[in-house]
């Protein structure tokens, strides 16, 4: 019955599903306020349940991020190319890597840094093909950058290609539509003109500021050649925001540290692992499913679920335990940097706009086993729906029932609620120790390493978390959810680079 209703009313159901995340998040945020007057006992159990949930997630993050750290260390030291040459002496060299770099108003220095890093890959550079996809709307500056890159790197790779994505009616300006355009143009050159078999080409969507570990594409080749279903796979490395970690203000540095360690942790969670930001799959696969969608802003999660449903659930993301170094949000001046960070996080939170598509496909998909699709979808829904809720639930909700309801404050539950939740949340701080240690080991060396004060201040930066959590997690989450609920769709804003 539900499936028939979705098929009969696609627009109505889509709009209802767009309203749902904001309705849920606002309901959970406001419940402790009004519920403290009406059902304080229920609010108390809600708060305790959330504190236990947060403790579980924190301890899981602590353990798995440490395990991921050791896996990254081992993978970074391994000679992937020598291994595939020994195991596949005649086959390994037939594999080609296509890298799409969508860009809009990126400084030429950033693009040159990215291509220079690609030129240091251990995989043969003649088998690597770069497509830098500019936007026509950038104007003459894009053509100047393209000419500069071609002059400097023309003979470095198998192919260095540039293209200019035009404004096309019906498309949303952003990374997804640009990547789609660049991938199609590259396919025409490599497959149709140069006759490289499409089955032998991987394709990587690379953020313009991303720097791969020098063994990344050798590791991708190993995974491609050893996996049983390479055309049903996306490979995801560990995104760490360390390129400019020492240049950004303390609040942004704390966020970059947490995001970096969390991305390593996610590599250990196959049930939660979805490609993010910079990732690799096969050109055959994206060609078979119709490439990236051009009418959406979030391109990474959309590509995964488009793939997952197109392949009837026979699709997965495999971790690559090698770091991919990216820039933390930065702009000219502290205030502009903070604004830049907020806009980036609002764009990430806008990933909740994909949930209408995901839930609809979940309802319509009949060939995927029920529990397989339910577990996969529920993890994403949980993360998206609770994004704005987490901060409120773990910081202020526990004090509201005894504070707002004098009668409840005299009960045993009312008197012990703050202490119980405080204990649970104190135990969850173990994860902060793990985050600090893993981050401290993996981030690049401190420029002012001879200044003892800088080492003292580094752990103290994490005391900013309650404030940072509100302004750079709860607030952009609420912003995105509310805009989607009200139908006030956002435009893609490129994170400014300096």
Description of the molecule:
The chain has 498 residues and is an alpha/beta fold. The protein is built from 21 helices and 8 strands. It has helices spanning 2-8, 10-38, 40-77, 80-87, 108-118, 140-153, 175-193, 216-226, 250-266, 283-288, 300-310, 334-349, 355-364, 370-386, 389-395, 400-404, 406-409, 412-427, 430-442, 452-460, 465-486; strands spanning 96-102, 128-135, 159-165, 201-205, 211-212, 233-240, 279-282, 316-325. It has an 8-stranded mixed β-sheet with strand order 3-2-1-4-7-6-8-5, with helices on both faces. Strand 2 (128-135), helix 6 (140-153) and strand 3 form a beta-alpha-beta unit. Helix 3 crosses helix 9 (250-266), helix 3 (40-77) packs parallel to helix 19 and helix 9 (250-266) crosses helix 19 (430-442). The chain is globular and about 80 Å long. 44% of the residues are buried.
What topology emerges from the helices and strands here?
Layout: H1 2-8, H2 10-38, H3 40-77, H4 80-87, E1 96-102, H5 108-118, E2 128-135, H6 140-153, E3 159-165, H7 175-193, E4 201-205, E5 211-212, H8 216-226, E6 233-240, H9 250-266, E7 279-282, H10 283-288, H11 300-310, E8 316-325, H12 334-349, H13 355-364, H14 370-386, H15 389-395, H16 400-404, H17 406-409, H18 412-427, H19 430-442, H20 452-460, H21 465-486
Parallel strand pairs: 1-2, 1-4, 2-3, 6-8
Antiparallel strand pairs: 4-7, 5-8, 6-7
Helix pairs in contact: 2-3, 2-13, 2-21, 3-9, 3-18, 3-19, 4-8, 5-6, 9-19, 12-21, 13-14, 15-21
Features:
498 residues; alpha/beta; 8 strands; 58% helix; globular
The number of distinct helices, counting runs of at least 4 residues, comes to 21
Percentage of residues assigned to helices: 55-70%
Unreliable segments (pLDDT under 50, ≥5 consecutive)? none
Please compute the radius of gyration using only Cα atoms: 24 Å
Strand content: 5-15%
Report the strand count. Answer: 8
Average predicted confidence as pLDDT? 93
Q: Largest beta sheet, briefly?
A: 8 strands, mixed
Kindly name the structural category.
alpha/beta
Q: Write down the secondary-structure element order.
A: HHHHEHEHEHEEHEHEHHEHHHHHHHHHH
- Spatial arrangement of strands, main beta sheet: 3-2-1-4-7-6-8-5
Rough shape?
Answer: globular
Q: What's the N-to-C terminus distance?
A: 53 Å
């Amino acid at each position: 019955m539900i499936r028939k209703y979705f098929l009969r009313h696609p627009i109505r159901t889509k709009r209802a599903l767009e309203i749902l995340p904001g309705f849920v998040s606002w309901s959970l945020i406001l419940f402790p306020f009004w519920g403290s007057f009406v059902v304080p006992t229920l609010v108390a159990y809600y708060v305790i349940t959330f504190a236990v949930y947060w403790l579980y997630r924190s301890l899981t993050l602590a353990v798995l991020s440490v395990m991921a750290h050791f896996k990254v260390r081992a993978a970074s030291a391994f000679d992937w190319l020598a291994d595939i040459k020994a195991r596949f002496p005649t086959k390994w060299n037939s594999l080609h890597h296509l890298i799409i770099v969508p860009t809009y108003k990126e400084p030429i220095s950033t693009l040159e840094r990215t291509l220079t890093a690609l030129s240091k890959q251990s995989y043969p550079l003649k088998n690597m093909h770069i497509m830098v996809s500019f936007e026509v709307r950038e104007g003459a500056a894009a053509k100047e950058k393209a000419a500069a890159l071609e002059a400097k790197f023309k003979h470095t790779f198998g192919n260095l290609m540039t293209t200019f994505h035009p404004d096309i009616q019906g498309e949303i300006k952003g990374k997804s539509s640009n990547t789609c355009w660049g991938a199609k143009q590259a396919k025409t050159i490599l497959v149709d003109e140069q006759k490289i078999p499409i089955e032998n080409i991987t394709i990587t969507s690379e953020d313009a500021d991303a720097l791969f570990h020098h063994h990344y594409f050798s590791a991708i080749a190993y995974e491609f050649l050893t996996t049983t279903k390479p055309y049903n796979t996306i490979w995801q490395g560990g995104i760490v925001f360390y390129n400019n970690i020492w240049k950004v203000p303390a609040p942004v540095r704390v966020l970059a540290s947490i995001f970096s360690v969390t991305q390593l942790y996610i590599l250990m969670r196959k049930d939660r692992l979805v490609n993010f930001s910079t990732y690799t799959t096969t050109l055959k696969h994206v060609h078979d499913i119709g490439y990236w969608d051009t009418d959406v802003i979030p391109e990474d999660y959309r590509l995964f679920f488009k793939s997952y449903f197109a392949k009837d659930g026979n699709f997965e993301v495999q971790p690559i335990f090698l770091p991919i170094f990216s820039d933390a949000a930065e702009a000219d001046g502290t205030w502009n940097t903070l604004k830049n960070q907020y806009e980036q996080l609002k764009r990430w939170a806008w990933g909740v706009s994909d949930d209408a598509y995901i839930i609809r496909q979940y309802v319509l998909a009949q060939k995927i086993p029920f529990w397989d699709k339910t577990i996969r979808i529920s993890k994403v829904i949980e993360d998206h729906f609770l994004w704005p809720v987490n901060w409120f639930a773990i910081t202020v909700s526990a004090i509201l029932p005894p504070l707002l309801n004098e009668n409840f404050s005299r009960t045993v539950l009312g008197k012990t609620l703050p202490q119980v939740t405080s204990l649970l949340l104190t135990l969850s701080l173990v994860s902060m120790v793990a985050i600090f240690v893993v981050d401290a080991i993996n981030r690049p060396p401190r420029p002012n390493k001879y200044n003892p004060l800088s080492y003292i201040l580094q752990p103290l930066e994490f005391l900013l978390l309650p404030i940072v959590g509100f302004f750079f997690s709860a607030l952009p989450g609420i912003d995105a959810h509310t805009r989607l609920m009200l139908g006030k769709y956002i435009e893609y804003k490129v994170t400014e680079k300096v």
